[in-house]
Amino acid sequence: MPDATRTNNMPDEPGVPDVSVIIGAYEAMPYLIQCLESVDAQTIGAERLEIIAVDDGSTDGTGAYLEEFAARTAIPTQVIRQANSGGPSGPRNVGLKLARGRYVFFLDADDYLGEEALERMVAMGDRAGTDVVLGKIVGVNRGAPKSMWKETVERADLYTSNIKFTLSAQKLFRRDLLVRLGMSFDETLKTGEDALFTMEAYLRGDGVSVVADYPCYYLVGRDDGKHATKSGTYVLRFDSARALTKLIATHVPPGPERDVLMVRPFVVTLLPQFGPSMLRQSEEVRRRKMELGAPLMRDYWTPGLARRLKVQERLRLACVAEGRLDLLLDILQFMKDKKEPEAVRKGVRGHYHLTYPHLGEPGGLPDSAYEVVVPERVKGGKTQRPEPQSPAMFMRRLKRKARRVARTVLSAPRRAR
Asked: How far is CA 9 from CA 22, 178, 299, 378, in A?
């Protein structure tokens, strides 16, 4: 690669390691110290590992520290120093081209591993025969995903589990899968490139395992706030959402399974662009966001997807789908004011609806957009669960009500006597 230099302590004729640990590092000091120490301490053993570390044009001593570490560690290590590429995809792709391991693990230079992490994940991948292994992630001075770590699973179902909500690159990937499919990180994306890569591996690989009984990965919150995921303009978020929805649509035909997967880009990537902070933005930015969101809503927004969302999520995206910025701003003001909607019954079957702005008003959104179809927090802090909606259940409730009325009428004369 132009403007790149390489140092290593690789043996002349090394065997194939179990894991190639790929570390892209940019301005990573002092966090890099603990990161590398955690790899050095892995119980899987130095002879089963290799490290490929790419200094992406750092000016804080990151490159020098990588070379110092490579000179003293027992783990075969390559250090590549290159001009800054502008994002994490470039360094990861450089590392991926040089990797020789049966598996690869992408480790961010800010973070660190639990001592048994790679040993446990490799054992899981070998036992289950899966192409992707997720190790439990723990936050350090920052939040971390939790819903997918409830139990260790040899083969997780992508559609019924919550693994689709952890799409960061910090996972164990079988290298044969990546080579066979020609997979790499999209260097045109400045955010969300890891989600695209990981979802493709989920969809095209042979199974995903979850190691939930041991903290494998420590996600560190930097004191200086220099996290790549926090940078970039709102336009980049739409680019990310567009790429991920297109990938899902390419590999999953229309229907319930596609709707399930589309929840992730719509709620995690797209929805935050239409949050209360929009109230502080200029009219120009608001209009531009609506324009960027419209094609995604047109191409991928379905009734099945809508019914998998909470009411306030569904309402905001429905406003985007309908081009109703006026209604959206009223709903966002309601949220900003921390008002809580009440649950009211509407319609012949008496389904619960939440009283967000414009419910039941002519010229507004349809009542179905306000209907409770997943568990919701409502006024008073209670959880409102949707009632069964089949005609049979409705008829049973109607008959029970009729019997109660009949008993009341029959008992009235006896009370009078």
From this structure: 15, 26, 51, 60
Q: Say yes or no to pLDDT of 17 above 80.
A: yes
Structure tokens that stand for 101 in this block: 């391991």
Q: Measure Cα distances from 25 to 57, 61, 164, 283, 388 in Å.
A: 9, 11, 26, 39, 52
For residues 370 and 353, what is the distance between their CA atoms, to the nearest angstrom? 5
Inter-residue contact 192 to 231 (CB < 8 Å) = no
Sequence-separated (6 or more) residues with CB below 8 Å from residue 230: none
> Do 109 and 24 meet the contact criterion of CB atoms below 8 Å apart?
yes
Which member of 55, 56, 194, 259 is catalytic? 194
Percent of the chain at pLDDT > 90 equals: 81
- The model's pLDDT over 126-165, given as tens digits with 9 standing for 90+, comes to 999 999 999 999 999 999 989 999 999 999 999 999 999 9
Residue 213 catalytic? no
Q: Quick check: helix, strand or coil at residue 115?
A: coil
Residue (of 8, 22, 16, 26) closest to 51 by Cα position: 22
